[in-house]
Amino acid sequence: MHNYNVNLFIRHIKYGVLIAGMLLGLQMTSSTAEAFLFGNPCQKTARDISMSCNAGARDAYWLAIATCDNLPTSQERKDCTGQARQDRSSEITACKEQYNSRLDICKSLGGGAYNPVINPADFVTKIDNPYLGLIPGTTFIYEGTTEEGNEHNEVAVTNDTKKILGVTCVVVKDTVTVDGELLEDTLDWYAQDKEGNVWYFGENAKQYAGGLIVGIEGSWEAGVNGAQPGIVMEANPKVGDIYRQEFAPGEAEDMAEVLSLTESTSVPFGSYTNCLKTKEFSGLEPDAIENKFYAKGVGFIKSIEVDTNFGSELVGIIKK
Fold first, then answer.
1. Are residues 228 and 309 in the same domain?
2. Is the pLDDT of residue 17 over 60?
3. Higher pLDDT, 239 or 21
4. Are residues 164 and 283 in the same domain?
5. Model's pTM, two decimal places?
6. Which residues of 92-106 are buried (b: 16+ CB within 10 A; e: fewer)?
7. 180 is in which domain, residue-wise?
8. Whose CA is closest to 300, among 268, 277, 282, 280?
9. Quick one: DSSP state of residue 197?
10. Is residue 31 situated within a structural domain?
11. Do residues 243 and 220 both lie within one domain?
């Protein structure tokens, strides 16, 4: 009888969470309600980010309504309010999709808290991983197509360094232009450990439009506001490996999965065999899945967006 009462109580609690989730805009089943209430650290983190996402959607809605209420005519106010409701609905839908995607990631990773131990003594001063060597003075040039137009991407490994969590990171300057106009200018921070894993410690990203900075979306630094570094290239990749490349909740949540070590592909810079192929995805953008290819002794050579087939290819390498 005692166990029956406990189980009944838990069912009532889960039912209450389902109702509360619906009111908050969360898409819940019995299992996601249980994760929401009793979940492991990873699931609880997914819940917390989702709560923040929905709160942001509500805040944006009411700010939009404030603007609508200040319009001079009733028709303008009506049209503005309708658009605000549509925008809120779209944002809440995105929050739901992100939440479910993060729960799937938790299942893949085992559910524990993500808190890698970083000991500066475990890192070396150069990055010479066969699949992702970053030697100062080297510039990788990529070209491809996007929805915005023809993309030109230059990734320059600088001689500059930045110390993060006590680790000396190599500064890589990544610039993207579309149809000749600067779209993004980013400083990325990488370091390699003694085992050969290449770690990503953050980025300072700036988005441009018309020559002006219009955003810093995606910027983060390990150790700041709970952000954690991730691995962008394993020392010994194995098919099936899944790992975090970065972790700043709600800002930077890229993941990677090793799909193959025997791919053959050609790009303008050359043809390669036994390439590493990865699947890259994020809880922030559940539908944005990208395949990347890496050649030993060269590095990253090609990317393809799964849904659109847009991508970029290595067209040249400049060494100073």
1. yes
2. no
3. 239
4. yes
5. 0.86
6. bebbbebbbbbbebb
7. 120-319
8. 277
9. P
10. yes
11. yes
**CB–CB of 292/232 below 8 Å?**
no
Backbone angles phi, psi at 228, to 5 degrees: -125, 145
pLDDT of 94: 95
Cα–Cα dist 83/276, whole Å: 45
> Where residue 188 sits, what CATH number does that domain have?
2.40.360
For 116-138, b/e burial (b = at least 16 CB within 10 A) is eebeeeebeeebebebbbbebeb
Q: Measure the CA–CA gap between 263 and 131, rounded to whole angstroms.
A: 13
Number of domains in the chain: 2
Q: Which of residues 42, 77, 109 is at a domain's end?
A: 109
Contact 303, 136 (CB under 8 A): no
Residues 272 and 143 in one domain: yes
Burial of 260 (0-12, 13-18, 19+ CB in 10 A): middle
CB distance 126 to 155 below 8 Å: no
Residues 21 and 137 in one domain: no
Q: Of the given ranges (37-41, 89-93, 184-188, 234-238), which has the lowest mean pLDDT?
A: 37-41
Q: Which residues of 62-79 are buried (b: 16+ CB within 10 A; e: fewer)?
A: eebbeebeeeeeeeebee
Looking at the predicted structure, is the pLDDT value of residue 14 above 90?
no
The answer to whether the CB of 290 falls within 8 A of the CB of 303 is yes
For residues 133 and 27, membership in a common domain is answered with no
**Looking at the domain assignment, is residue 114 inside a domain?**
no
103's tokens: 């729960």
Domain boundary among 51, 78, 109: 109
